[in-house]
Amino acid sequence: MVGLDVILNALISGVLLGGMLALTALGLSIILGVMRLVNLAHGEFLVAGAYAGLFLLQWTGIDPLLGLGLIGIALALIGYPIYRFLLAPLAGKGPEASMMTMFGLSIILQNVFVLLFSADTRAIERGYATVPLDFGPISVPQIYVIGFCISAVLIAAVHVLITRSRFGGDLRASADQPQAAAIIGINVGRVHAITFCLGVACAGIGGTLIGVALSFTPTSGAAYLLTDFALIVLGGLGNVFGTLIGGVVIGMLQSLGGLTLGDGYRDLVALVLFLAVLSLRPQGMLGSRA
Amino acid sequence: MRSRKSHELLSAGHRLSRHLRAVALCSVAVLAATKPAAAADEIVIGASIPLSGPLAGFGSFQKWGYSRAVDEVNKSGGIAIDGKKLLVRLVLRDDKTDPNATAANTETLLSRDKAVALLGSCTPALVNAGALVAERKKVPLVTACNPLEAFKSVRKWTYVWDLFFDEPELAAIPFKALRDLKLETNKKVAIFHDNGPDGQVVGGALWPNMARDAGYEVVENTSFPVDNTQFTSIVAEAKAKGADIVLVDAITPQAVSLRKQIASAGYAPKLLVIEKGAEPVQFAEALGKLADGVVVGGYWDPSFPYPGAKDLAAAFEGETKLTSSQHIADSYAAAQILLDAIASAGSLGPDTINAAIARTDKNYVVGPIKFDENHTAKLPLVMLQWQAGKTPIVWPQERANGKVLFPLP
Fold it and tell me: Which H or E run contains B296?
């Protein structure tokens, strides 16, 4: 019989880890919501962020969490030419072409990672990533708390950007009615470019957090892509705060799955939930673009 | 008019025919140029190994070991076949840690690259996938990196040979070491193992039985998929149950994640054994100081009294500037055994080479090798422990070149 402290530990850890994963899913969500692009290379952008954090630390000594802004900018700069030269020419040619382009890019990026960085297992070694935070009988990994806080702050910042800024207005208009937005003078291509760069930056920053908390290899991205899909379907497509709530819920349910069926069945829980929500409430538990 | 049209049609037909002939000729020329069939003046041996994917850490060592053995033979002038010295060409294909790719690569090595004999991949899932193809095609394959029970459980082999450690011996190491080194624990054991073939054998069957036989209490025994990365629940449970001994069988990415999660949960078992995943140096590189104290079974060390052991490690470290791994030794020895057999056979016939492998009885860099009736050669085991980026032998005492770090820092 599992004790109450074990259940609480697992649930709180699950909530915190889910919140951290929400940041990685946010990039996928806004790109899908605004551009209608299923970004199958999202997992590789996440892994690129983990490598960026690792090499930032190794080459400059800058702590990857302090350098998250730099990592986000670097990933956004990588994202722009991908949008400009691979995705923009496919605008208006249907969703399949761009989706398959990103699928091809994911394979290319995996091979580039192997070529440049070898296929070794990596982790970003930081002392604060391997100490617990104790609250009486409850003990949770400190890095999960840090990751959750960073994730929540960045998700809130993206929410403010989308709801309170002029760019946010353009973005929402481009997502809802791209043709009408273009007629009233919104540069939809520019909005899509910025959205794509923002999504890639979020994936990269999330990847750095994963690199600090767990481990990664050039091919780790695929597993996170699946979890992220489940998470954004649960939270509602393009719903920024829904992504955070989706992350928390999925983290909690994964932990319950881990406790009852074993940690190996965490992903099973997430994917069953993904299919159930798609069947019963395809707009997501919280609806789209709140 | 009609005849003019007919003439035009005929001319067009001729032009088309000429074009088709040209295309056909070009295609034949291109095919002939690209077909990498074995030339008459070389011996091709092949291997499908994990150069990418989660097991790439092992594949890089295998590549080095196989290549070194072949390079040495070529530097000495090659191997005499029917009285003529031929150089050896090693063809390596990346199986991306995917058994399906291993099987496909093995087919390609035989049909396209015309390999006359093969070397193995790493871990049972990959090695056995390629070995079954070799067995079906009746081409000899020498492998290491495949625990013997997992190898023997597949079938009665005719063309495939395995030199590695035996799982029951590996599983017994922690309990023997705890006894011999008089390490005090509360005798509570938690076992975490992946659901791969060797994980099931070691973690699912051998460890629990041996723990009970040695008077230990197994408070938790959990399996997980090979690619699982989150272990918070099982770690919390082991911590709550107060297990002083944690035994893990998992590949490197999972081993790294698990070690971090054990630390970040504030869980401090006294003995942490991580088989398989803690072997490559990447484990220690990814974890830094957190790797210190982690124990892993070992079948080779440069200090072993075998011919060329010290030189092999020095050569690896000199060339790559990396810390050596035991995997360079078994892969080097496997390639040497195959090359010796080809030399002894003096022919490229698969059955002749296979018969020569069966006659192997020689001291190699991993110790004396003589295959038994199951086509296996057992490598003796020691207990290694990560200490400041190195893995000294800490058990058995007669081979130890370092002191055990206990309890886990």
Answer: strand B295-298
